Amino acid sequence: MAILTENECRTLLKKVLSYSKADECQVSIYSSDSANVRFARNNVSTSGFISSSSMAISSAFGKKLGVITLNDYSDESIQKAVKRSEELAQFAPENPEYMPMLGPQTYPASGETYVDATAAITPAQRSKMVEDSLNIAKQNKLTAAGFLQDSAASSAMMNSKGLFVFNKGTNVNFSATMRTADAQGSGYVTKDYNDISKVDIKAFSAIAAKKAAGSLGAKAIEPGKYTVILEPAAGIVLLEQLYGSLDARSADEGRSFLSLPGGKTRLGEKMVDERVNIYSDPTNPDLPATTYDGEGMPLGKMSLIEKGVVKNLSYSRYWAQKKGVKPVPGAANIIMEGGTQSLEDLIKGTEKGILVTRLWYIRPVDPQTLLYTGLTRDGTFYIENGQIKFPIKNMRFNESPVIMLNNLDALGKTERTVSGESSQSALIPPMRIRDFTFSSLSDAV
Amino acid sequence: MGISASMLSQFTAVGSPIVPGTRMRDVDVAIKKRMSDVALNAARAKGATYTDVRLGRYLNEYVVTRDKNIENLVSTESYGMGIRVIANGCWGFAATDRLDNDSIARAAETAVAIAKENSRLQTEQVQLAPQKGYGEVTWKTPIERNAFEVPMKEKTDLLLSVNDAAFKNGANYVNSVLFMVNEQKYFASTDGSYIDQDIHRIWPVFGVTKIDDKTGKFETRSSLSAPRGMGYEYMMPRESDKIKCQTTLYRDRYDMLEDAGAAALQAAEKLKAKTVEPGKYDLVLDPSHLWLTIHESVGHPSELDRVLGYEANFAGTSFLTLDKWKTGKFNFGSKNVNIVADKLQPGSLGAVGYDDEGVGTKQWDIIKDGILVNYQAIRDQAHIIGLKESQGCCYSQSWRDVQFQRMPNISLQPGKEKLSPADMIKNVEKGIYIIGDSSFSIDQQRYNFQFSGQLYYEIKNGKIVGMLNDVAYQANTQEFWNACTAVCDKDDYRLGGSFFDGKGQPMQASAVSHGSSTARFNGVNVINTARKI
């Protein structure tokens, strides 16, 4: 099954709108082909192929909205669906926060989100990639578990006010955990790209294998405050709690870490170290992104934190109108500026500290301070005098990304990584942080 | 992994919004059988040695409010077929939402092709525990009132009244949601089963926020409801289902209005509560809190797929290794700790007639008098722990996803001797009584955990002396369960749970209940979570 092309989407959506009698009508469509192979115990465990598509029709009369979705695109089915969405709109309660649909928009060109070679991956290719990873495990007398998933998808939106936008994208995601035969050592790697040609399964798997072997014989150290180097896959899971919470409404309402007494917020305030710059740019070749959001708002380059100052909070169209400001859509993607040092350079420059491969089971503890808890996992090492000295047992932390970025010591080179918690990608540098708070030891390997 | 942090995103992942009342009509069972046979025959023709088909229609409805407005009325429907095969001793899976005969046959062939392609990498062939075919059978959640048939106005009026009740008691903000689920699942396999099931679940939740304008501090108190395998009758309060203590707690009927009113007062009280002094405390844990600790520290480590390493890359493995189980003496907890796995309990989220690989459901012991005695296993794992049949706990969140081992209800059995929470508290010298669930985190082998709650009450010399704040407790699983010194009797037994237990890659959500009575744990480490930014 192939995903829908731009022309197929345009023709189909035009047909839907031709049946509309509502004040406003908007239609969006999404189609995807996705395949995956999961492996464990050096065997393939499950694998599959999923093809699906769906269309959502939104009809509005005044501030009353009705939404219906369908995946049968026959004339009869579409006509019925349009009619039903209009009936629902007439039936629905008026929503005081409803905003009129957007007219035609000018969208910045997005990056190269779609790569033909990724969309053309075959079952035999997938099988070969998994085989390469399993071979690395077997050569190193390790047990591998992992996941390989690739997908191609297209989406389009059109409305009765003349808005139309289309995009398509591909993605391939690989992660592997290698464990020693005695289950006392474990190493991890995760990578995510639009372009399959950037995926080097053997090299990625070798990283996990090296960490697994190196983590054997872990020693316990006393929990407390330590300098840590967070590899990008570790740092992203804490950073995403910060950049994912830059919302104006909750801040204005007084129920966010960005809120201040008296209805004020931290927008425009220096909140973290001045070396912290976080922004979005959908044209970045290393993390191309679509240039529209779910309402059809254009997404371009935008600063979120600049020199440690909170530069932009997202304002929904309703909240922006209420506050008399311009709407600010959410970020198209996330890029955190880094420095020039490699991970190895950061290690060399560390007198005493801990190298963290992965952070796990991240959960909020206190929204007032953005305090989160979680644990290290799959490769945690003690550094002394610029060298990795020995593996250490995993530990639980209780830390706020705001406090963490105030304790920034050094930044390495930015690279693409993917969150093991949210599955979202970002460009994140390795970070060296002072006084990171570990509160207890874990026996987990 | 554990309970998903992003509930709504999990929920929407399963389907797409449609108009309430416009769902497809029930598909006739004869048509379902015919469609399933197309898949079974196509897979067999391509060389599959086993095939199962799940033709699913998954309906969700949720009513979402924000303060005084209905923010969203969403109904989702997802309809399609998942086909799982064994070919050359390897699993293959394909799913499609195009349900003409050609598309079904093509999906079945794709599943076989995938299995054959990957079989060359196999060193362990899939070994299925035998399962007799049941023929054509049905099962339905015993509900009194179908939530999907309750007029939308009744549901929206209820939630708006709930929000009003909180505002009347001083809340600044209120969000409330009513989740309703109906899984209409048809299962067919080459074993000769054709199983038609109609499964219902419901979950009302809210969050009430109170802000101190002067200090800028804010506190939220969330609902003390439980998700249930019930119909709309759960929303009809009944005095006999209420337990009165520092707040009102609920058994099999929920009074959402009453709870929201109490929540507003308690959120304000939390703003003024004393910050906890870190140290060792005896914890008295209410079932509205303890369910999540049971889920994370007993439910997940006793999943056999984790023990065997199938989840090593994501959810993790387990400290409950096979060698510990084989001794027959592994001391998981104190003698007060009896944990039962269950897929039958009426009103629970896990209750079904048959699991998603066509196995009739049952109940079995996991921890008996503190000793690890069993795991949770499905058909391709049963032989590993010497079972002759599956334990019937295989599940998939939708037709699109492949089924795998998921947690049945895992519950702490009540104490045999008469004991109420009030009597339990009378014997505590220095302790904290915790009600409701909040923050939760545990390591990938389930040793080290940290939990928080909604309401914390300080116990001094057998009496509750006031509310505490900034509380979290940390423990090692085995030490914690061995510190369980008492469990209240059956009169206090209640179910908690979640719709959003996450596991697998791609991650799937599963609904599961956990029952318990209030239990006491001695000498647990409590930390203070207050910070300044």
In summary, what is this structure?
Chain A has 10 helices and 19 strands. Chain A is of the alpha+beta class and 445 residues long. Chain A starts with 5 loop residues before the first helix and ends with a strand.
Textual characterization of the structure:
- Chain A is built from 10 helices and 19 strands.
- Chain A starts with 5 loop residues before the first helix and ends with a strand.
- By secondary structure, chain A is of the alpha+beta class.
- Chain A is globular and about 70 Å long.
- The two termini of chain B are 30 Å apart.
- At the A-B interface, strand 1, strand 2, strand 3, helix 2 and helix 4 of A face strand 2, strand 4, strand 5, helix 3 and strand 21 of B.
Report the count of strand segments of chain B.
29
Largest sheet of chain B: 10 strands, mixed
Radius of gyration of chain B: 24 Å
% residues in beta strands of chain B: 35-45%
**So how many helices of chain B?**
10
What is the molecular shape of chain A?
A: globular
Distance between the termini of chain A: 42 Å
Strand content of chain A: 35-45%
The portion of residues assigned to helices of chain B is: 10-25%
Mean pLDDT of chain B: 94
Overall pLDDT level of chain A: 96
> What is the count of β-strands of chain A?
19
Placed side by side, the strands forming the largest sheet of chain A appear as 3-2-1-4-5-6
Class per helix and strand makeup of chain A = alpha+beta
